[in-house]
Design brief:
The chain has about 375 residues and is an alpha/beta fold. The chain is about 25% helix and about 25% strand. The protein has 11 helices and 17 strands. Strands 3, 4, 5, 8, 9, 16 and 17 form a 7-stranded mixed beta sheet that branches. The chain has a 6-stranded parallel beta sheet with strand order 12-11-10-13-14-15, with helices on both faces. A 4-stranded antiparallel beta sheet has the order 1-2-6-7, with no helix packed on it. The longest helix has 13 residues. The radius of gyration is 21 Å and the shape is globular. The chain starts with 8 loop residues before the first strand and ends with a strand.
């Protein structure tokens, strides 16, 4: 890769020219990295619901043309001025949020919400100069959450790259860049169930299944999956779910159903849907005295959380989490090691695989609920 250092690279990228329209494989130009930036060769990437949501431009201000993608694994091609802890050849996972290591949040052991590099879905340019690093025939193409991994090469701020064990297979661990780490960390880092305790997980999508996986790793005795789609239960069993509740099958609030099942409530609950009613149910289904509920899903902007104050006064705890409380550069290499040590099972999250030229199939799988994660092979 040394021959490309400092040069504009021409490569293939899947460009979204319009909201909701199929991506088009184009030859684009990728500029060299500037100060505190890294140019990465992407080997494997994956599709997340966040990509789909902003590609559809639901409730958002469209920013097109754009290169989406933020779950990926790659190799450093070159680094810009000021980058000291990465070098060409390093294996990295791009992360949609960052860790500058200098701000108050980064220096706190209790937060992972970097002031400089916190997720920004509206910014389609790089921080250093307010410009994009992608173009086609002189036309700028916007970035997405600072990663834009649906391109054979991309430029990313050094604070949004986790350097990982080079022995880790990138076609597997690339899925740890977003949703799976979010759900896993919500359970292990925030809910923190003790061995033998009960855990309820609301939502059996990728994030919820990762939360269940965290409960399995923690040694939970009962893992109750809650979802409106009963067909998801069989798949959920692979992630340690022992019981399944579909709220539509009951004529009472699901929190009451769970309380009856567990002699007063579960020890921990993790909500992974973004539904405000699911959030309320998750909180109200935990046991008084010690129960902890963790909110992961993102609600609609006009939603409001309502519960009786006695639910708090009776010593139930309500928490929220962002990216599972993992600091990207500091903690994600350790999540990869959980996989390498066979503590975390990643393969069961990967249900499909396509070539880069077939990337629109990955969108179809996601839109029709067929895939947990679909790997996109960039060299195929």
């Amino acid at each position: 890769m040394s021959g490309t250092v400092g040069q504009v690279i021409k490569c293939k990228a899947a460009v979204a020219w319009e909201a909701g329209k199929p991506l088009v494989i184009e030859e684009v130009e990728v500029a060299p990295p500037q100060a505190n930036e890294v140019r990465v060769k992407i080997l494997f990437t994956s599709l997340c619901h966040t990509d789909v949501y902003f590609w559809e431009a639901k409730g958002q201000t469209p920013l097109f043309p754009r290169i989406f993608g933020h779950e990926a694994g790659g190799i450093v091609e070159s680094v810009g001025e000021g980058v000291a802890d990465l070098q060409p050849g390093d294996h990295v996972l791009p992360i949609f949020t960052g860790e500058c290591k200098e701000c108050r949040h980064c220096k706190s052991e209790e937060s992972n919400m970097c002031d400089l590099l916190r997720i920004n879905t509206d910014r389609g340019v790089m921080l250093s100069d307010g410009k994009t690093r992608f173009s086609k025939n002189g036309q700028p193409i916007y970035h997405f959450v600072g990663t834009s991994t649906f391109s054979e090469y991309t430029v990313i701020h050094v604070g949004c790259l986790a350097k990982i064990n080079p022995a880790a297979p990138l076609d597997k661990v690339c899925v740890l860049s977003c949703g799976i780490s979010t759900g896993l960390g919500a359970t292990l880092n925030v809910a923190k169930p003790k061995k033998g305790q009960s855990v309820a997980v609301f939502g059996m999508g990728a994030v919820g299944l990762a939360a269940a996986e965290g409960a399995r790793i923690a040694g939970a005795s009962r893992i109750i999956g809650i979802d409106l789609n009963s067909s998801r239960f069989e798949e959920a069993k692979k992630f340690g779910v022992t019981e399944f509740v579909n709220p539509k099958d009951h004529d009472k609030p699901v929190q009451e159903v769970i309380a009856e099942m567990t002699d007063g409530g579960v020890d921990r609950a993790v909500e992974c849907t973004g539904s405000i009613q699911a959030m309320i149910s998750a909180f109200e289904c935990v046991h008084d005295g010690w129960g902890v509920a963790v909110l992961v899903g993102v609600p609609n902007k006009d939603d409001s959380f309502k519960t009786h104050p006695m639910n708090l006064l009776n010593e139930r705890t309500l928490k929220g989490t962002f990216f599972g409380n993992y600091k990207p550069r500091t903690d994600i290499p350790g999540v990869v090691e959980k996989y390498m040590n066979k503590e975390l099972e990643v393969e069961k999250f990967i249900t499909h695989s396509v070539t880069f030229s077939e990337i629109n199939k990955a969108f179809d799988y996601m839109l029709h609920g067929k895939a947990i994660r679909c790997i996109i092979r960039m060299d195929a």
